[in-house]
Design a protein that fits this description.
Layout: H1 3-17, E1 23-27, H2 31-38, H3 41-45, E2 49-54, E3 63-72, H4 76-87, E4 91-98, H5 104-113, E5 119-124, E6 130-133, E7 136-138, E8 145-147, E9 150-151, H6 153-170, E10 175-178, H7 183-198, E11 212-217, H8 232-239, E12 246-248, E13 261-263, H9 270-275, H10 280-297, H11 307-316, H12 318-323, H13 325-343, H14 346-357, H15 362-373, H16 380-393, H17 403-411, H18 416-419, H19 421-429, H20 444-455, H21 468-477, E14 499-505, H22 510-522, E15 527-532, H23 538-545
Parallel strand pairs: 1-2, 1-3, 3-4, 4-5, 7-15, 10-11, 11-14, 14-15
Antiparallel strand pairs: 6-7, 8-9, 12-13
C-alpha cells in the first residue's frame, strides 16, 4: 500500500506511452509539484524528457519535433487552457493524462478542439495528491475552511476527489469511520461516499481485504503541532521550514550563494532517506563520519570536533563542495539547526513542552514555566507554544491560571493578536471542542497509573509525547475504538481491519508521519497510510488557530 510507488508507476507509464524521441512535460500548478517531488529532473532526462512547462505559460516556443506529455487536474480552467493548446498546437503530438476523473462533456470539448488531430491518447491516471513517502501524502491546501467547522465548498470537493484518487491508485474500496464531533470529518466522508457511488464502475476491480478510511480532525489533537521536534526531517521543517521539498537557507548567517535554497528529497538524496528519523545527535555523528571518510581519502589531518569545524573544512575544499554537494548541504543545515538550538535555549524549552504534553504535575510545571518564559534567549514562537501548551494540557485543572503567563508574553513585547492565541487555542481545540480522549480517561484509576508510569522515568525526555492518532490506530486494530466517538458511515457492520488510510482534516506533522512509519515497521501485519490537507509546523498551525 505505497502511494509513492503508485505515482511513480503512473509517471513512468506516461513517459513509456509517449515512445522514443524528445519529450516535454506540460503541467498545471497542481501537477508540477507532484512530478518534482516524485522524480529528479536528471532521472526524467534519461527517459528523453528534456523540458518541463506550465500550461498557463503563453510564451512557450513552438517545437513540432517534441512529443508532449500533458498531465493536469481535470479543472475547468485546465480544460479551457488545453482546448486552446490543441487548437494551436505547439508540439508534434500530445499524450494527455488527467490526475482524476474527467467528466464526459469535457472529453467531448477536447475532441472538438483537436482539429489538427495531434492527440494520440487520453487517460485518467489517479495521482491527485503529493506523495511524501511510501506511507504518507498531502494535498498542500493551506486553508480549507470558510468559518469554524465549515468547509470552503470547492475545497471539500477537491479533498474528496483526492481521496478517491488515492483509493483508485491503491485499488482499495474502504469502509469509513470518522470523528463524531467533527462537522468537517462528517462532511468529507459523506462527500467521498457520494463520489464513489457516482463512479461505482471504477471500483469494480478485484477486492481483497476490506480496508478502512478513518477521517480525523486536527482539532482533536492540538498538542502535537505545538511541540518542538528532535528527529531530522521533523526538526528541519519545524525550525527552517520545508516547502515542496525545498528549504530556504537565505537568512542563515554566512551561507554561500549556492546553498541559499536546497532540496531535501528522500527520493533524490540517499543520505537524507537514511537519516529522516535519526535524532539530532545521530545526524551530527553521521555527517562527521562522512566528512572524516573524505579526509582519509584526501590524506588530510585536519581535526574535526564540532559542527563549526565541519563547516570550515567544507568551505576550504572546493573539490569537496564540487563532488560532495549532498554532504555540503547537510553540513549547512545541521550547522544552522545547531545554532538555533544553542542560542535560543531550545533544549530546556522542549523538555518543558514534553512534560506538559504528558500532563506532569501542575505544580511542577507552574514552578518552571514562569522562569523559562522570562529567559531573554527564548524565541517568540517558543514563548507562544509553551503558553498554548499550558492552556490545552491543564485546562480545567485545579489552580489553572493562564492569564499570568499571557501577562508575561505582553511584558516580553508580543502583540495583542498573538497574546489572544491563548484564547483562540481553546476555541480551536479545547475540551469543549475536542472529540475522543486526547489525554486518556481521567478516572482516578487512570490518573494513578499515569502517575506511577511517570515515576518510572523515560528513555528520552525529549520524546515522551506520543501522537494521539497512533493510539487511535491501535484501538482500531484491536477492535477497541469507541463507536460513539468514531461511528461507521452508514451504520456499517463492525469489522476488524489491517489496512487503514488515516486522513486528518486540518494538517499533520512529521512527528506523526514518523510514528506511522515506525508502526508499520513494528506491525508488519498492518498497513497504515497517513494523509492530510497539509503539513504543519508550529508557525503554520498558529496561523490556522488565529484565523
Amino acid at each position: 500500500m505505497s502511494v509513492l510507488k503508485a505515482v511513480k508507476l503512473y509517471i513512468n507509464q506516461m513517459v513509456e506511452n509517449a515512445g522514443k524521441g524528445m519529450k516535454i512535460f506540460l503541467l498545471g500548478k497542481e501537477t508540477l509539484p507532484l512530478v518534482s517531488v516524485t522524480f529528479a529532473q536528471s532521472e526524467l532526462l534519461k527517459k528523453e524528457v528534456y523540458l518541463f512547462e506550465r500550461i498557463d505559460n503563453n510564451t512557450r516556443e513552438t517545437m513540432k519535433h517534441m512529443r508532449c506529455i500533458v498531465f493536469l487536474r481535470p479543472t475547468q480552467d485546465n480544460i479551457a487552457l488545453l482546448c486552446g493548446e490543441l487548437r494551436n498546437p505547439r508540439y508534434g503530438s500530445y499524450y494527455i493524462y488527467f490526475s482524476n476523473i474527467i467528466p464526459k462533456p469535457d472529453i467531448l470539448k477536447l475532441a472538438g478542439a483537436d482539429e489538427h488531430e495531434v492527440v494520440k491518447e487520453i487517460q485518467e491516471f489517479y495521482a491527485d495528491f503529493i506523495p511524501l513517502l511510501d506511507h504518507a501524502f498531502t494535498l498542500n491546501l493551506p486553508k480549507i475552511t470558510s468559518g469554524p467547522g465549515s468547509w470552503e465548498r470547492s475545497l471539500l470537493k477537491r479533498t474528496a476527489d483526492s481521496l478517491i484518487a488515492a483509493m483508485l491508485s491503491l485499488r482499495k474500496y474502504p469502509v469509513m469511520r470518522y470523528a463524531a464531533k467533527s462537522d468537517l470529518a462528517r462532511a468529507l466522508v459523506n462527500c467521498t461516499q457520494d463520489i464513489m457511488k457516482e463512479n461505482s464502475h471504477l471500483f469494480e476491480f478485484r477486492r481483497g481485504e476490506t480496508p478502512l478510511l478513518l477521517v480525523l480532525d486536527r482539532r482533536d489533537d492540538p498538542v502535537t503541532p505545538l511541540l518542538n521536534q528532535w528527529t531530522y526531517h521533523a526538526m528541519v521543517h519545524e525550525l527552517l521550514g520545508i516547502e515542496k521539498n525545498r528549504v530556504d537557507l537565505s537568512e542563515v548567517p554566512g551561507i554561500s550563494k549556492d546553498m541559499r535554497e536546497v532540496t531535501l528529497s528522500p527520493e533524490q538524496d540517499s543520505f537524507f532517506a537514511d537519516s529522516l528519523n535519526c535524532d539530532f545527535g545521530e545526524i551530527g555523528i553521521k555527517i562527521k563520519d562522512l566528512v572524516e571518510k573524505f579526509q582519509e581519502q584526501q590524506h588530510s589531518t585536519t581535526a574535526i570536533n564540532s559542527i563549526t569545524d565541519m563547516k570550515k573544512f567544507v568551505d576550504n575544499y572546493p573539490q569537496f563542495k564540487k563532488f560532495s554537494g549532498t554532504v555540503s548541504k547537510h553540513v549547512a543545515i545541521v550547522g544552522e539547526l545547531s545554532r538555533i538550538v544553542q542560542e535560543h535555549n531550545l533544549m530546556e524549552c522542549s523538555e518543558l513542552e514534553q512534560l506538559m504534553s504528558v500532563q506532569t504535575s501542575h505544580s511542577e510545571i507552574q514552578q518552571r514555566l514562569g522562569s523559562v518564559l522570562r529567559n531573554p534567549a527564548v524565541r517568540e514562537i517558543d514563548l507562544l507554544r509553551l503558553v498554548l501548551l499550558y492552556c490545552v494540557c491543564y485546562e480545567g485543572t485545579s489552580g489553572y491560571n493562564p492569564r499570568q503567563y499571557v501577562d508575561v508574553l505582553r511584558t516580553r513585547g508580543l502583540s495583542e493578536a498573538k497574546c489572544k492565541l491563548a484564547t483562540s487555542i481553546l476555541n480551536y481545540g479545547g475540551r469543549a471542542v475536542r472529540g475522543g480522549q486526547l489525554f486518556g480517561e481521567q478516572t482516578a484509576v487512570a490518573m494513578t497509573k499515569k502517575y506511577f508510569k511517570g515515576l518510572q522515568g523515560v528513555e528520552n525526555i525529549y520524546t515522551q509525547h506520543k501522537p494521539y492518532l497512533i493510539e487511535l490506530v491501535q484501538q482500531m486494530i484491536q477492535g477497541k475504538m469507541r463507536e460513539a466517538d468514531f461511528p461507521w458511515l452508514g451504520g456499517a457492520p463492525i469489522v476488524r481491519v489491517n489496512e487503514i488510510i488515516v486522513f486528518v482534516v486540518g494538517g499533520i506533522t512529521f512527528e506523526e508521519i514518523k510514528a506511522v512509519q515506525q508502526w508499520n515497521i513494528s506491525n508488519p501485519a498492518n498497513k497504515i497510510v497517513l494523509a492530510s490537507t497539509g503539513i504543519h509546523n508550529c508557525q503554520s498551525f498558529l496561523q490556522v488557530v488565529g484565523q
